[in-house]
Amino acid sequence: MFNESLVGGLVAALLTQASVAQDAQSVIAKASHAIGADAVKSLQYSATGFDFAFGQAPNPSAPWPKFIEKSYTRTIDFETPAARVDRIRLQGENPPRGGAGQPLIGEQSQSQTTIVSAGTPWAQEVEIWITPHGFLRAAAKKDATAATRAINGKNYTVVTFTGNNHAKVNGYINDRNEVERVETWIDTPVLGDTHLEVTYGDYKDVSGARFPTHIVQTQGDYPVLDLQVSDVKINVPANIKADAANASANAQATNPPARSEKLGDGVYLITGGYAVIAVDFKDHITLFESGQSDARAAAVIAEAKRVIPGKPIRYVVNTHSHFDHSGGLRAVSAEGATILTYKLNKPYLEKVLSQPRTFNPDVAQQQGRKPTVEGVGEKTVLSDGTHVVEVYHLQALPHHDGMLVAYFPKEKVLFEADAYNPQPVGATPPSPASPNNLSLLDNIQRLHLDVQRIIPVHYPADNRAITVAELTSWAGRSGS
Which CATH architecture has domain 255-474? Predict the structure, then answer.
């Protein structure tokens, strides 16, 4: 009797699962028919609107800074699969606030191509499958499930499949059989498991299919894209090919060997990626910045321990919370180091650096270690009686409200991030001058710092020594 009940229960469970799967495929088929997903092998849409620079907010409580999309064209080939975005951007924050190369003078053309292969990260590939037609095409090939859910008094059928990173991909289908929202989770270096969501509205008929004319994408709780679609072409020849610019970008994304330069007794500049300074204090090492990623931080850690052997890394000074300057903090934290940052950044970094990394576990996740973050004020002096480093908060800097710089009085070196990013020799200075450059000059004068050399975290490609005179000239000021 027991065995018969067990078998009966298993059969019932299998029938229920089959019914759910069948229901999901029925839902997918209806939605696909409604918006023409089965017939859409490629599409191209043009739009205007805004994009927002992920991880580059002017302070930890602000949205990502806005840029104007003067033109935006996305081409998707669902068969290859592949996608390409071509856009022209304009400055959107006036006055400029935040990072991502602000202020942007004139028009900026950008292109990005993704051709899916075995090595393509899911976070790039998923951009194809979170489009309405892409979602339905992917769900039809997956072991999808369906469930009814009410949100704000509105009923949706939620179709779910599992992405290549083992995260759920949920598509919310309304009573018109339109994909109204798609959400999933991806790994990002600072936020860890990160919610990614796109909403689609105002569908219109296009060449036998239907396509939304309003698209809003959010990541990390804030919008990263807000588009009004003006034109859609269905089944156009996609002809998406990798270009030289993408090949160059991929080459730059590699992690070159770390190199070191001795700035003074026990003070080392580590380059090869984002610049880092390592200081040999009496019983420990302090790093100034950590590299832009875990991989870069690992190279920095190894080089710091090579030039300063036998000592632990006890502190890392974070200049600000922008993601390209916080991406390596967890790796250094896993060494047991305490993160020093301006007090404005402390609650935010404590929160985001402690979030789970289940899709791409790093060393800190594997250790179960949460970062230790300490906030500092307007001036902090780090000293062991031999070395002295003065850490200052930059005031009135548009790039970030919580920016720290480090001044080495013995070496007369100023270590800074993003207030001045040197351009190649012979480049034309911007007009008007960058407010970030002007602010850095004002702060040097306010603090009465005798700076003979500036070391930018975004170190110049030609490895030249940067002086205050160069910054002054670039900013269009005379004298020092």
Answer: 4-Layer Sandwich (3.60)
